[in-house]
Amino acid sequence: MQISRNFMVIGVAYLCLGIVFGMYMSGSGDHEFAPLHAHINLLGFTLMTVFGIVYRVIPGMAGSALARAHFWMHQAGALGLLVMLWLLLSGRIGEAGMVPVAPVAELLVLLGVLAFAVNLWRNA
Ligand code: HEM
Ligand code: HEM
Question: How is residue 63 annotated by DSSP?
Fold first, then answer.
């Protein structure tokens, strides 16, 4: 699997989605979705692009099991969290409905970042 390319390609897809939410907010004046827009752009585009660039600049990091674990944990965690945030902000669920999926998704993002940190420590 091309970790670097996959992170960057998926990241830019999140950017397109984030911009659409931004345009909707500025057009409608409804800024209710600002946290969702912010995290689609930051957790989706910005972080994934940074990760993709790091795995490209330091190829020794990209082939390891840690990189694959990071990739899948970040994909599952970010998507899970963003879907839960959308459900919350659109009024489909309440705060209580965020549990247990949102905390698990947050933990996945964190564990992925820890795998990235260990990989950096060993191979950068
Ligand atoms: C055409 C592109 C974009 C449009 C039209 C747009 C529009 C908006 C709008 C209307 C808000 C709500 C502001 C508020 O309620 O105070 C917002 C918030 C935000 N946007 Fe964007 N945005 C765009 C692109 C981006 C990108 C590329 C990023 C990051 C990489 C970004 C990051 C943020 C963040 C972090 C906030 C939350 C700021 C806060 O709550 O203090 N936006 N954006
Ligand atoms: C698992 C990961 C994350 C969780 C659980 C999380 C959670 C939150 C929460 C609860 C807020 C407050 C929202 C509000 O007051 O309405 C927030 C705001 C914010 N976060 Fe995150 N965040 C995460 C990752 C990130 C990352 C990776 C970035 C930047 C690269 C980031 C940037 C921001 C910014 C700029 C705001 C203020 C924008 C706003 O109020 O909408 N977050 N985050």
Answer: T
State in Å: Cα 118 to ligand 1 middle: 32
Single out the residue of 69, 65, 68, 99 nearest to residue 84, CA to CA: 99
CB 38 near ligand 2, within 6 Å:
yes
Instruction: Please write the tens of the pLDDT for every residue from 79-109.
Output: 999 999 999 999 999 999 999 999 999 999 9
Token readout for 92 is 């489909």
C-alpha 32 – ligand 1 centre gap (Å): 12
Q: Which residues line ligand 1 (CB under 6 A)?
A: 18-19, 22-23, 25-26, 31, 34, 37-38, 41-42, 45-46
Q: Which residues of 2-22 are buried (b: 16+ CB within 10 A; e: fewer)?
A: ebbebbbebbeebbebbeebb
pLDDT tens digits for range 45-69: 999 999 999 999 999 999 999 999 9
- How far from chain centre, in Å, is Cα 41? 8
Reported as a single tens digit per residue, the pLDDT across 108-124 is 999 999 999 999 999 99
